[in-house]
Structures are given as C-alpha cells and as structure tokens.
Amino acid sequence: MLQRRVIYRGRLVRLVREVLAVGPDRLVRESLLHPGAVVIVPLLPGPRVVLVRQYRRAVGRRLLELPAGTLEPGERRLRCAQRELEEETGWRARRWRRLRRFYAAPGITSEEMTVYLAQGLRRTRSRPDPDEHVRPVVLSLHEALRRVHGGTIRDGKTIIGILSAARGLRA
C-alpha cells in the first residue's frame, strides 16, 4: 500500500481511499471498513422461521429479512446474535449453532457476517433500537424457501441464512 486516507468516519463504518502498487501498476481503491455483523435464523417448530420486515433506505423499500445486527466494540459474535434476536423479534433461544461465515460484498466492504441457527425459542419482549422500525413475520421454512427461489426475498444475508438452515436441517 502506497497511501491510505480516511475519507469518511461514521458511527459504524469508515470509508478509506487507498493507492496500491500491484506489479508495475498503481491502483486506487475505496473500501468501507465495517466491524462485522451477525445473521440469525430463528427456527420455530413446524419448521417455521421468524423474519423481520424493515425499511432499507439504500434500496428505497421494505425488505423481508432475517434478524441481524452489527457487532459493538469488543462484543462476541454469539452475544451480538442473542442481543439482536431479542431486540428485533422478542424471542430468545435456548440452543445456538453457527452455520457459516461469509463476506457481505468483498468488492467494496470488509464486513464479515456470521450466520447462527437459533432454536428452542421462547417469547420475551422486543426492544428495537430507536432508529429501527422492524415488524416480525413468521413463515414456514418451505414458504421462505419458495420466496428465496421466486425472487421475492432479495436480501443476500437472508438468502444465505435460509438456504444454510434448510441444508443443515436436511443433513
């Protein structure tokens, strides 16, 4: 790396501009540095999955997604998943299993996401952050898969989470 400059420092992310030497070439890249996030597949008997519907400004629409959240400084991934599940849906889980980790969009961001399967759910009270407007939605896993394959669930982390859970349950 020849040069690195922070262009923007936000509440959660930093945008950096880097000049890199790759062989004889100089490349300029901009990247969004992100602390990482978790995605939760909350599974009820049936099997049914708890999702959330929320407005996403970047795409200008409400999306049906799995609950998810950004890691706070020093927070462990499983603890973040437990916190986000209760905040966004009002459920707690007795059993947790990590399904996979993946990069959200490695061409632009460092964000690494960890997908957890949450089972043995019991109701509590949801406590979304003040800037979150989420509404829980329960679908059968079959219906969630149908919506993934039909293109009505379009959020990448949700697609990966639902497909990973379905495969994990079959195995």
Strand content: over 45%
CATH domain fold name of the largest domain? Nucleoside Triphosphate Pyrophosphohydrolase
Helicity level: 10-25%
Task: Provide the number of structural domains.
Answer: 2
At CATH level 2, the architecture of the largest domain is Alpha-Beta Complex
The radius of gyration over CA amounts to 18 Å
Largest sheet: 7 strands, mixed
Cα distance, first to last residue?
44 Å
Provide a count of the helices. Answer: 3
Order of helices and strands: EEEEEEEHEEEHH
Average pLDDT value?
95
Structure explained in plain terms:
α2 crosses α3. This protein has three helices and ten strands; from the N terminus they run βββββββαβββαα. Strands 4, 5, 6, 7, 8, 9 and 10 form a seven-stranded mixed sheet that branches. The protein has a three-stranded antiparallel sheet with strand order 1-2-3, with no helix packed on it. It has two domains: 3-32, no CATH class; 35-170, Nucleoside Triphosphate Pyrophosphohydrolase. With 171 residues, it is of the alpha+beta class. It has helices at residues 77-89, 141-150, 156-170; strands at residues 3-9, 14-22, 25-33, 37-44, 48-56, 61-65, 68-70, 91-103, 112-123, 134-140. The mean pLDDT is 95.
SSE blueprint:
Layout: E1 3-9, E2 14-22, E3 25-33, E4 37-44, E5 48-56, E6 61-65, E7 68-70, H1 77-89, E8 91-103, E9 112-123, E10 134-140, H2 141-150, H3 156-170
Parallel strand pairs: 4-9
Antiparallel strand pairs: 1-2, 2-3, 4-5, 4-7, 5-6, 5-10, 8-9
Helix pairs in contact: 2-3
